[in-house]
Design the sequence.
């Protein structure tokens, strides 16, 4: 299945890049977040392919959910899809947007794919192993989180949502450097051993985080509530799929 999810994400990325080249504009959704034709076209493609691949597994997808379409996920297994994570990054043309596809089983992300088409990085993981492929080169390499560096941690923060609460949280740790990145790339950079900690003390949704969470777990990291111990879970319909504040950790 994971091979198929990688291929689906790559095809969705190609659709997004067609819109990226034409400088697609955005409109505002009911929650005041932006959406573009690229989001909608990529989601339509992903939903069609997932329906062909695993017709018995329901899909929670960002734009379909915004339109009020919520399939029954009571069986505990479902896909979480963000067809274009980082719409603000897409609109600003900084390249840091991704396609996110995750498989959830009993509240846990057991497989995930994150593809950043503009910067040519594909990440995936499941079963305690995570990988990256640079598409132009074609090489596939296993990735792992790194031990905490003796000189201090590299923290990664949201490019669009960094605030004083984040700074206050990071002040608890020995931080050598803080870097910014958009979308679910933040999870993947920790998974690849390029950073060590990512706190998020603002609103996010499950489709924003599940694929990156799966990859980070497979690479030896974890994602928890702010207490550092309670793991993130998925399928929280009572909260309309909103996440709690969380921290992504390396090794």
Sequence:
């Amino acid at each position: 299945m994971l091979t198929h999810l990688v291929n689906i994400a790559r095809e969705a990325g190609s659709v997004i890049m067609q819109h990226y080249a034409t400088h697609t504009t955005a409109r505002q959704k009911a929650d005041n977040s932006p959406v573009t034709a690229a989001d909608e076209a990529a989601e339509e493609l992903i939903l069609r392919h997932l329906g062909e691949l695993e017709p018995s597994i329901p899909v929670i997808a960002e734009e379909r959910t915004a339109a009020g379409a919520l399939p029954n996920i009571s069986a505990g297994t479902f896909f979480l899809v963000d067809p274009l994570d980082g719409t603000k990054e897409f609109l600003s043309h900084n390249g840091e947007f991704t396609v996110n596809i995750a498989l959830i089983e009993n509240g846990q992300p057991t497989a995930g794919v994150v593809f950043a088409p503009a910067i040519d990085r594909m990440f995936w993981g499941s079963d305690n192993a995570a990988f990256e492929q640079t598409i132009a080169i074609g090489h596939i390499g296993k990735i792992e989180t790194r031990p905490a560096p003796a000189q201090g941690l590299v923290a990664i923060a949201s490019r669009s949502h960094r605030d004083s609460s984040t700074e206050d949280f990071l002040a608890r740790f020995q931080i050598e450097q803080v870097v910014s990145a958009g979308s679910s790339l933040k999870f993947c950079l920790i998974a690849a051993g390029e950073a060590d900690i990512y706190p998020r003390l603002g609103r996010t949704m499950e489709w924003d985080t599940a694929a990156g969470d799966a990859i980070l777990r497979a690479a030896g990291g974890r994602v928890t509530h702010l207490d550092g111990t309670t793991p993130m879970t998925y399928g929280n319909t009572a909260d309309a799929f909103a996440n709690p504040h969380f921290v992504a950790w390396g090794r």
